[in-house]
Amino acid sequence: MHYRKRILREMISAIKKNETIQENIDLRNAIAELYKVWKFDATDKTIRNFFKRGGFNNQTDEDAILSDLKEKWKTVEGNGRITEDATLSGILEVDAELLTASYPTDEEILKSLMDNNKGQENDSYSENEDVIQPKPHRTEMLPSFETIKRGFQI
Asked: Where are the stretches annotated Disordered (predicted)?
């Protein structure tokens, strides 16, 4: 909606300036307008409404979820197949302190670059430069185009 609104504004502006109206929008202009929509028009409310219309319910009441988990835990606990030291909070927090990402230090980056440069010859020639990649077949390219096409549909 915001994208179409911006396009219509451009058309109206062209009419007011007595300029020729562009019937088709090229990919570059479409991407530029989508960028503007995302940067200036896509508010939190817009995104919430989008998900709501898509059938996603934004009612993520943590108390209701926790209550449901507690009920399920009682069923599992009553089954007798878990050890006595297992608790619901232990299960929920099992990976709370798990390292999910790490970033290299400046020293590690420099060492890596220096190690990579040691293995290369002074000559800037690379054996891979002469390798000619065969053209992909049309059937290999079509799925990629379909993915890109879906990405630009509004």
From this structure: 117-137
